[in-house]
Write a structure and sequence with these properties.
Elements: E1 2-10, E2 13-19, E3 24-29, H1 35-45, E4 70-77, H2 84-91, E5 100-107, E6 113-117, E7 120-122, H3 124-131, E8 135-138, H4 140-145, H5 149-159, H6 161-212, H7 218-230, H8 232-247, H9 258-272, H10 277-306, H11 311-331, H12 335-353, H13 355-401, E9 408-415, E10 428-435, E11 443-444, H14 445-448, H15 451-464, E12 473-477, H16 485-498, E13 503-507, H17 511-514, E14 519-527, E15 532-538, H18 541-552, H19 559-576
Parallel strand pairs: 3-13, 3-14, 8-12, 12-13
Antiparallel strand pairs: 1-2, 1-4, 4-5, 5-6, 6-7, 9-10, 10-11, 14-15
Helix pairs in contact: 6-11, 6-12, 6-13, 7-11, 8-10, 9-10, 11-12, 13-15, 15-16, 16-19, 18-19
Length: 588
């Protein structure tokens, strides 16, 4: 429920504080006084587009605002409003501790706006999300929406109450799961062809690698062996020459050979080793050199004997190196990289091979979800038909009080549970037709109802749906257009009854409607020849009667008008349960 709405710098309004109360509040005023500015302020809080053209020219007297800036804020009682707890959680905001929420929207002269929830800056979309649970605004556009099949379905769903809402939520969850599974299946199937094509290429690569059967480090070993084989002659010559230097040619002892000379040196030193400790150490070192030289000579002999210069082996090594090089060019910089590529390719092929299993699994899920959605859609259709019958009975009762006693509505629900016909809201197309009077043919609401009849139809539906109102406040913008006289009285009576369930705010030009208000606000204007200003004031007693007289006849001080106004107030008071108006509401 909106407790207070404060508007600064919008249109002709300098600064106005609109204090609302439970029940029915009406806002009246002369044409051009700025009644729509109140609705403009609400629209801004509901996330409406900020337009610098709606800003008041100049600055506020007294300096409250300057430079043409504007601001709208409201204090809202949010305890008990359905859905708001989840909204606050989604936005990461704490719920108001005392149940009162302060919301604000500011607009700079350039049109840039900012939004606040309890002084915390938030995106405008967040402000709109919160206000969608606070207020619903009904006007000429909502009457036009009565023509829309989707809106007619929503009316039936709202009247269906918690049972239908639960069924619709359950169906919606099933439908979304079904659609997601269907999308996943389509993506999987569309990717299967590419996956199979890729797997075929991978299999060719694996076959090529397996034909060569490389081993880790093999390319490095073969490179070393190829170097030896290509230089076998030079290696042999060098080894033989080195042996000749160490021990001779191998047949005759060469006195110049290293081992011969080291042996001679060892013998010379051995003769005097006992005399001097230092000589004994040197002799030992010479003996070590001799041993090492003999070992090297032996290993060189083994090296020469096993040195492979076989041309066939060399050809095989080169051919093997060539095949390994081809693998490296295609699959990796080294044989280790090639082997890793093969392992990865094998995993990808295995994953592709399981694609058919995944397709089967997803197909089963899609089929099960589709069957569940179809069944729930049928259940939803049954609930809607029952709700539609009850709704029409309730609306017919309201229309009887709105000077449309012979009007008859009919609702046609065309249902299909075929998968291709199901949407997020089920498989029902709701069409409400109207017979305005006896003998008339049933026609769609948009073609069978005048503007005044549309106004009364919209009001009848809202009164019938009052118990299921999803918000705490309903605002009506001249929904009484096109009606007058006794019908206008009934419109006021219906709005008053609606206000027993929710807070109702009505912008009206009909005194018959205004008379039923629990709180009557008047938008007044004054002019100084340059700037027009407007304010919103609550009227009671004689002032309220005077405003009703103005609305009735435009004649100030009219005794006949005053009597008529008091009569209207008496009717309204009787509707509220009182026998007569209190003295403060009478005027003489």
């Amino acid at each position: 429920m909106i407790e207070e709405l404060r508007i600064r710098g919008i249109g002709v309004i300098d600064e106005a504080c609109v204090e609302l109360a439970p029940g029915l509040t009406v806002i009246t005023g002369e044409t051009g006084a700025g009644k729509t500015m109140v609705l403009s302020g609400l629209d801004l809080l509901r996330g409406g587009r900020a337009d610098s053209g709606m800003l008041r020219d100049g600055a506020l007297n007294g300096g409250a605002l300057n430079g043409g800036a504007a601001e709208v804020d409201a204090v809202v009682e949010v305890d008990g409003l359905p859905g708001l707890e989840a909204v606050f959680e989604d936005l990461g905001l704490a719920e108001p501790q005392d149940g009162a929420l302060i919301t604000r929207r500011t607009i700079a002269p350039g049109g840039r706006s900012r939004a606040y929830l309890d002084s915390r800056p938030v995106p405008v979309a967040a402000l709109a999300q919160v206000w969608s649970h606070i207020v619903a605004v009904h006007g000429q556009m909502d009457q036009a929406r009565l023509r829309e099949a989707s809106w007619q379905r929503e009316l039936v769903d709202r009247f269906g109450g918690a049972e239908l809402a639960t069924a619709l939520a359950r169906y919606g969850e099933t439908w979304r799961s079904w659609q997601q599974a269907a999308r996943d299946l389509e993506e999987l199937r569309s990717g299967m062809h590419e996956a199979e094509r890729q797997a075929a290429l991978l299999r060719l690569g694996i076959a090529e690698i397996d034909e060569v059967a490389p081993e880790a480090g093999e390319d490095v070993a073969l490179d070393a062996e190829a170097a030896v084989l290509s230089h076998a002659g030079a290696l042999r010559d060098a080894a033989v020459a080195a042996r000749a230097m160490l021990s001779g040619s191998g047949d005759d002892i060469d006195s110049a050979a290293v081992t011969t000379r080291l042996a001679s040196a060892r013998e010379e030193l051995a003769q005097i080793a006992d005399i001097d400790e230092r000589v004994r150490e040197l002799a030992a070192r010479v003996d070590s050199l001799l041993t090492e030289s003999v070992d090297i000579d032996g290993e060189l002999g083994e090296y020469v004997r096993h040195l492979d210069a076989d041309p066939a082996r060399q050809a095989w090594v080169e051919e093997r190196r060539s095949r390994l090089s081809a693998l490296r060019k295609s699959y990796g910089a080294s044989i280790e990289d090639v082997l890793r590529w093969r392992a990865d390719a094998a995993e990808q092929i295995a994953a592709a091979d399981t694609g058919s299993e995944r397709v089967a699994e997803l197909s089963s899920r899609v089929e099960q979800a589709s069957e569940a959605a179809q069944q729930q859609a049928r259940e939803l259709s049954e609930l809607r038909r029952a709700a539609a019958e009850r709704l029409l009975a309730s609306v017919h009762e309201e229309l009887a009080h709105l000077a449309m006693p012979e009007a008859r509505l009919d609702v046609s629900i065309t249902s299909s549970s075929e998968p291709q016909a199901l949407t997020a809201n089920g498989g029902d197309v709701v069409a409400i037709t109207l017979m305005p009077h006896a003998g008339a043919s049933a026609r769609p609401i948009g073609k069978g109802a005048s503007g005044g009849e549309l106004s009364r139809l919209a009001l009848a539906f809202e009164v019938a749906l009052a118990d299921s109102a999803p918000v705490g406040t309903m605002v009506f913008d001249e929904v009484d257009a096109g009606v007058g006289g006794a019908v206008a009285v009934e419109v006021g009576r219906r709005l008053a009854r609606l206000s027993r369930h929710v807070q109702v705010v009505v912008v009206t030009h009909l005194p018959q409607v205004a008379a039923f208000a629990d709180r009557h606000l008047v938008v007044t204007k004054s002019g100084d020849g340059a700037v027009t200003s407007a304010d919103v004031v609550a009227v009671e007693g004689p002032d309220r009667v005077a405003e009703l007289v103005r609305m009735l006849s435009g004649l100030e001080g009219s005794a006949t008008g005053a009597a008529h106004a008091e009569e209207l107030l008496e009717v309204a008071r009787a509707e509220a349960g009182g026998a007569a108006l209190p003295a403060g509401e009478r005027s003489r």
